[in-house]
Design brief:
disordered N terminus, 11% strand, two-stranded parallel ribbon, single chain, globular
């Protein structure tokens, strides 16, 4: 049974839907791990990885962006990802039967943070939107490399895995296939 993304705990709803808490009201761990700058860096790498894996340099689907953070930020999921895209998503899922429910639960709770990161990245020009696709802006390549040079090993590992997830999604097929395999719906 497919899971739907719903309102995360600790957020509020209003006329415009789910609202993020003010920055000053967020726990310090949330400020460090889920800040829009870091999450944008991960989405940029994922979109870049997706484009790299396709002949036409196709961007990552908007819906797939909502799966990147749950797969990359959750240490157990990240560390269980294969080292090569030749291991297919269905094979990985067969070897990790609890992964779909973990990813779906985390995706649901990270929706507002993913949206915030997409807005942040779009407003600063890290990513470009075209119809239903997200493209990594290549003008940011040097700045991203410099940011990673000055980052911790864990940040570099997360960025590397974000690029991997983008490539993996590209090799898996269309967005409907990826979402169906992971048991989630937009």
């Amino acid at each position: 049974m497919a899971r739907r993304f719903s309102r995360p705990l600790g957020s509020s709803t209003g006329p415009g839907g789910v609202h993020m808490n003010r920055w000053s009201e967020r726990p310090s761990e949330e400020q460090r791990l889920l800040n829009p700058s870091f999450c944008s860096l991960l989405l940029w790498h994922s979109a870049g990885g997706h484009a790299e894996a396709t002949r036409r340099r196709v961007g990552i689907a908007f819906e797939e962006c909502f799966l990147v953070l749950p797969m990359v930020l959750h240490r157990e999921i990240r560390e269980s990802l294969p080292s090569r895209t030749t291991t297919s998503l269905p094979v990985w899922l067969a070897n990790n039967p609890l992964a779909p429910s973990t990813i779906a639960d985390r995706a649901r709770s990270l929706v507002p943070f993913t949206k915030e990161a997409l807005r942040f990245a779009g407003s600063y020009g890290l990513i470009q939107f075209s119809q239903t696709l997200i493209h990594a802006n290549p003008d940011w390549r040097r700045r991203m490399a410099s940011a990673l040079d000055n980052s911790s090993d864990e940040v570099r590992t997360c960025a590397m895995h974000a690029a991997f997830v983008g490539k993996w999604f590209a090799k898996t097929g269309n967005v409907e296939t990826v979402m169906s395999l992971l048991g989630v719906q937009p």
